[in-house]
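Key result, reporting period 2: structure in, sequence out.
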């Protein structure tokens, strides 16, 4: 372990029943760092925070603090304090007593010398003078030193939030955990508190671990951002790295605004998207299918030129210091920003500098399920998701007889429970809001606009994930039927088919 690693998460996972909430996370946090866990609701960020604090025990893996295993150590034995979204302040106590509450209960070892010269250690409460000094310092850090006699219910939301922070830091923890502490504040107060929290972090010099779903908060305050989705870490990096060099389409879509397109590497450092070939700086295999990200501020709009890609301005929105434009290029949309007031329906040429084209490996090329099996009804099952399929592809020239057996040259095969690998093209799956349209149902957990179509992630009721390219717009948490034609399911038998022979 490095000397400056205060926290190490060693392959931690957390399940509640059959639901895997955090999936094999490994990372370290440096002393004095401001780290933010960022992701949509339900991604596992708060559960990860609670495992660090000791309020949840990992199902697998270890939590190390300064190199020591504290996985099974209760919260009160860890040098960690937490500020929650609901501040849990005591309404019947004033500001001073709220901040001093923990100190008044705290006991510290004191060495006492007896008359016989022997020294004994006793646990004693902190002296009132020491409590006063600690509370005064904490209130000064949060700029509330003049409000110590105020009743809690007379304070604004931002002031209450600072009281909660003062109560957490007064015990001088090594680590401060903050679980969406700005969630109850209005937009203006949130922005002010973002800057104040960053300043507090500098004053205290301790490790801050922050949880939020707000990208602006993460970019504004953090030294390091950990982006999570579905219990899995997608990317770890500085705010600049996360924004400028996203590692996959989810990160690019979640952090700021992005143009995301499916593309192809047509030559060395040349990529084709929007039906145009662009110079780029990333070096991928020729003919490799990739994803491309271009930030709207990196799109340069100019007057129509024959040497550039031409588009038509569809709409514009004034944002104070710039306009946001939607430009139609062929069948695709391109988002751009420009300080000039350009006319809707006017033609523009489009330029993107090579260094501003971020190329990423495709996260999803196909739906692949390698632990599927054949049911007694000759369906294919991925966990509990069952679909009609064509078993004859497992044995060319075969057919299905009246009894449901696969037959070739007079030999019958009983494939019940036979293990198979399944592949389904991303474009071969359809979705419907008619629940009766299929026996397999799921919920939309992610949707990314890719210029002229959406790429949707659906999680079925049996916890299988399906990637679908669709022209339809779906909302997160929509419940849908998952429809796949039998001819679109490609099967490969795992093992020798001869072991499934039966007597005719």
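The corresponding designed sequence is given below.
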């Amino acid at each position: 372990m490095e000397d400056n690693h205060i926290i190490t998460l060693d392959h931690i996972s957390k399940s509640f029943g059959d639901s895997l909430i955090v999936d094999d996370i490994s990372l370290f946090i440096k002393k004095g760092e401001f780290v933010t866990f960022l992701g949509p609701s339900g991604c596992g960020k708060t559960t990860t925070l609670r495992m660090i604090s000791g309020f949840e025990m990992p199902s697998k893996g270890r939590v190390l603090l300064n190199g020591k295993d504290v996985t099974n150590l209760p919260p009160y034995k860890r040098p960690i304090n937490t500020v929650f979204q609901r501040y849990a302040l005591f309404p019947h106590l004033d500001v001073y007593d709220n901040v001093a509450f923990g100190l008044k209960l705290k006991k510290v070892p004191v060495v006492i010398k007896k008359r016989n010269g022997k020294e004994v250690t006793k646990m004693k409460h902190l002296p009132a003078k020491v409590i006063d000094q600690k509370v005064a310092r904490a209130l000064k850090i949060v700029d509330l030193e003049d409000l110590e006699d105020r009743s809690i219910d007379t304070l604004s939301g931002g002031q209450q939030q600072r009281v909660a922070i003062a109560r957490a830091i007064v015990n001088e923890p090594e680590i401060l955990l903050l679980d969406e502490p700005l969630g109850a504040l209005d937009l203006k107060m949130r922005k002010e508190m973002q800057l104040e929290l960053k300043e507090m972090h500098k004053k205290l010099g301790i490790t801050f671990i922050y949880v939020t779903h707000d990208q602006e908060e993460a970019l504004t305050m953090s030294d390091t951002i950990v982006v999570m989705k579905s219990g899995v870490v997608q990317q770890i990096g500085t705010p600049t790295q996360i924004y400028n060099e996203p590692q996959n389409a989810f990160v690019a879509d979640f952090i700021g605004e992005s143009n995301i397109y499916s593309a192809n590497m047509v030559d060395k450092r040349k990529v084709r998207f929007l039906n145009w070939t662009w110079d780029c700086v990333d070096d991928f295999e020729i003919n490799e299918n990739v994803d491309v990200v271009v930030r709207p501020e990196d799109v340069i709009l100019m007057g129509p030129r024959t040497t550039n890609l031409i588009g038509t301005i569809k709409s514009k929105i004034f944002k104070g210091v710039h306009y946001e434009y939607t430009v139609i290029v062929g069948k695709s949309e391109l988002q751009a920003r420009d300080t000039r007031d350009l006319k809707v329906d006017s033609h523009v040429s489009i330029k993107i500098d090579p260094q501003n084209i971020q190329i990423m490996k495709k996260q999803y090329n196909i739906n692949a399920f390698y632990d599927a099996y054949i049911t007694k009804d000759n369906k294919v099952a991925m966990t509990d998701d069952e679909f009609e399929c064509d078993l004859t592809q497992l044995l060319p020239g075969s057919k299905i007889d009246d009894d449901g057996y696969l037959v070739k040259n007079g030999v019958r095969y009983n494939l019940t429970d036979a293990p198979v690998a399944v592949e389904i093209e991303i474009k071969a799956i359809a979705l419907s809001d008619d629940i009766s349209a299929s026996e397999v149902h799921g919920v939309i957990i992610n949707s990314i606009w890719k210029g002229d179509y959406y790429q949707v992630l659906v999680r079925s009721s049996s916890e299988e994930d399906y990637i679908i390219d669709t022209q339809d717009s779906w909302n997160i948490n929509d419940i849908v039927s998952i429809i796949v034609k039998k001819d679109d399911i490609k099967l490969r038998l795992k093992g020798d088919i001869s072991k499934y022979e039966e007597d005719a």
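The chain has a mean pLDDT of 89. The chain has four domains: 1-79+173-244, 90-157, 256-361, 366-502. This case is discussed further under Risks and Mitigation.
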